[in-house]
Amino acid sequence: LCQFDLKEKRSFFGQRKDYWDFLCQGLARRRQEHEGVRFVTSLDKLKTPVGRGRAFLRYCLVHRQLAESLQLCLLDPESLREWYYARSPFLSPQHRAEILGILYELDGVTFHLAL
Questions:
Q1: Where is the RUN domain (predicted)?
Q2: Spatial separation of the C-alpha atoms in residues 86 and 51, rounded to whole Å
Q3: What is the C-alpha to C-alpha distance for residues 48 and 44, in angstroms, rounded to an integer?
């Protein structure tokens, strides 16, 4: 879902941006610093935005923070339109509410994933 209809963006040095960059930007606007972002950026083995994004999702699942973290990123409609094309479910209020509802249900599941 995070990659579906994501606009292609590039960093200053030409590296392709991915949903990891969207999550970092969205969380930075809402909080001082997210523990998951701090943890993922400390992992030297992760070289790509996709790898960092996957590690962040695993971290959030283990720590039961995925719904809250994603919700913080989805609060700004202007930022969503900057990162996603119109077909993204994140741009539909109904789909966004359904996705977040399901993710909040996941908070009740215990995940044991290698971080």
A1: 1-115
A2: 25
A3: 11
pLDDT tens-digit series, residues 30-42: 766 899 999 999 9
Tokens at 80, concatenated: 């969503």
Q: What is the pLDDT of residues 3-25, one digit of tens each?
A: 999 999 877 766 788 999 999 99
Given CA atoms 68, 72, 73, 74 in this order, what sign does their dihedral have? positive
Phi and psi at residue 9, to the nearest 5°? -130, 155
Q: Which CATH architecture has domain 9-107?
A: Up-down Bundle (1.20)
Checking phi first, is residue 32 left (phi over 0); if not, alpha (psi -120 to 50) or beta?
Answer: alpha
Q: How far apart are CA 94 and CA 77, in angstroms?
A: 14
pLDDT exceeds cutoff 90 at 98: yes
- Tell me the two tokens of residue 22: 């969207």
